[in-house]
Amino acid sequence: MFGLNLKDRLRSLNRQRLYARDLNKPCFSHPDGFIFSGGDKVMAKGAHEPFQSDLVRKILKEVQLFANIGAHHGYYSCLALSLNTDTVAYEPEKTNILILEKHINANDFNNQFTLLPCAVGSQSGELILYGGGDTGSLLSNFNSIKYQQQTVAVVTLDDTLSLGEKKALCLIDVEGFEHEVLKGASRILSNKIKPYWIMEVLRTNMQGDFNTEFENVFGLMQSHGYCAWAIDESANQLVPFTSDAALKVKNGELKTNVSNFLFTECDDDLAQRL
User: Fold this and answer.
1) What is the pLDDT of residues 144-168, one digit of tens each?
2) CB 3.0–4.6 Å: which of 85, 124, 211, 249 could bond 80 by disulfide?
3) Is 14 exposed, middle or buried (0-12, 13-18, 19+ CB in 10 A)?
């Protein structure tokens, strides 16, 4: 385990046992009709990110493909598949993959589902994943879990995701690595039929240090003709969020608790229709 001391090895093994325990927990019927593990009770009962989940349901009615980048246990993948949407999921963490596959198999979703057991970045290769479960990140400074590390394969969206004439929804949840994901998706971002994006863009890491790539995500998306909308769960509304606003957040001139954002082409009225 990368030269870890005995204390850290024991902590790592204990954490892995806790994750593995989820594999044996019973499943519940989600309100959308799919089966999900009791290890994720909030997700299983339909109470996870209710406003964003509703947005995803509505957007999925307008697309033919769902890409789940950082799929975790497959909540949004199962939601898409329950609506008969072809789904491609990317997930590098070993235990997450086992739980994700459990959910796919329990619902017999395999015919419309493709799993790529790898991370996504700006170029193909290998990187170290720090931590696991909910907080695994390819950034060494993102969380404090240095004792749990694994080498994972990395691919780009441009190399692995084919849109063709399909309209897609891409959902990114990669714990601070979103700018690197987008740097490897220039072809996708320039596609004739551009996808919708829902993205977790974190302002800080788990130690409270500011994410230096925060405003760059919004600048990159703006350069490809996208406008951003903050997904405000507390107010159940979409709020316009510009690259200037992102810069103000960086400079401490604007406070926001929102970390999930919808990106649409600026001339698309999707946000008004939702």
Assistant:
1) 566 678 899 999 999 999 998 999 9
2) 85
3) exposed
List pLDDT tens digits, range 196-226.
999 999 887 666 677 788 899 999 999 999 9
Q: Where are the domains of the chain?
A: 6-273
Tell me how far apart the alpha carbons of residues 195 and 184 are, in angstroms, rounded to a whole number.
15
Query: Which H or E run contains 120?
Result: strand 119-120
**pTM for the model:** 0.89
Q: What is the enclosing helix (H) or strand (E) of 105?
A: helix 94-106
Sort residue 190 into left (φ over 0), alpha (ψ -120 to 50) or beta: alpha
Q: What is the C-alpha to C-alpha distance for residues 150 and 127, in angstroms, rounded to an integer?
A: 8
| Contact status, residue 174 vs residue 142, Cβ threshold 8 Å | no
Residues 6+ apart with CB under 8 A from 274: 55, 58, 59, 238
